Amino acid sequence: MDELQLIKGIQQGDRKSFQQLVEKYRQLVMNTCFGIVHNRNDAEDLTQDVFLEVFRTAENFRGESQLSTWLYRIATNRSLNFIRNNKRKGFFQSIEEAFAGGRNRSKEISNYQADQPDQKITGQQRKEMLHQAIDKLPEKQRVAFILNKYEELPYQQIAEIMEISLASVESLIHRAKKNLQNQLYECYKKKCI
Amino acid sequence: MDCKTIHKDLIFYLDNELPNERRIIVQKHLDRCTECREFLALLQSEMQIFSDEKNPEVSPFFYTRLSARLEERQEYQPQNQWVRLVQPVIFMLILVIGIYGGLQLGSNASNSTTNQPATRSIQMLDDFEAEPIESFLLEKL
After folding, report:
1. B136 FRET partner, CA 20 to 30 A, in A144, B56, B86, B123?
2. Which residues of chain A lie closer than 8 angstroms to B66, CB-CB?
């Protein structure tokens, strides 16, 4: 069954078409969500939300773009919203912690690493440092970079997903790499990785 | 070329995105600079994380969970939609009725105050005047 047939089936409420679509694209959506949120459980919940949205709004899909482009778009929007909501919650939590005399977790990690420069950091800590560096990138740079790195998408498809020009994608990815490199270099100088 | 300039190019060097001339310059620098080589190795190991993290495992019960959520949603949806449509209408009706009732009460109250002098002007029925007590007593006799 091709993409259009699947979508037509879903538009008519056919569960088998929906299941086929989920089986075919769940890894793609999961990859994208994971690249942005860096947590497997959150990424899986978001992947489910994406497919629920697909089922709910299938009638809006006109077939003007590829189905995967539409899925990438929903997945990135959902994941970015999830992060924005988490940041908002985190902001209020940090206020609460400030009043309760607590400390920020990320600061704890970097302080811990700066305090013990000789200690070899684990793979998990290395991952966390990379994730933190990615999270510091501006949203558009982050999305373009993640679609390119995790999904290995060509710049043209990234441009279609983000609804921007090809030149903008090139510029975004170039700046994302520079920013990421600068952050990692800062860490390298401080011996935190 | 100094290390600072080379550092800026290393990520592009790793991704084979440097022009050939530039690539040769970086390569030559790397051959003699230990610090830059170290940073390159670090960048390489960090970039390797992207490959390691690709295709995270999806739970085997993914579709079962999704299907359950879909059914849950479909069960709730008609009710939710109905409630979502009817609730504001009911609230609006109550509000309009309340405002209308309030206006009516208000206008009645203002009417009653304006009518007060008129009611005052109505003469109270005076039983004694209509039927003096003397005539009443005489009738009884």
Report:
1. B123
2. 22, 48, 51-52
State mean pLDDT over A85-101: 75
Q: CA–CA separation, A102 vs A107, rounded Å?
A: 11
pLDDT in tens, B43-88: 999 999 988 888 888 889 999 999 999 888 776 665 566 777 888 8
Q: How confident is the model over B120-134, as pLDDT tens digits?
A: 666 666 666 667 777
Q: Letter for the amino acid at A121?
A: I
CA distances to A149, B18, B115 from B11, in Å: 13, 9, 91
Residue B115, CA distances (Å) to B102, B110, B111, B124 in order:
20, 9, 6, 16
Of residues A139 and B117, the one with the higher pLDDT is: A139
Residues A42/A161, Cβ–Cβ less than 8 Å = no
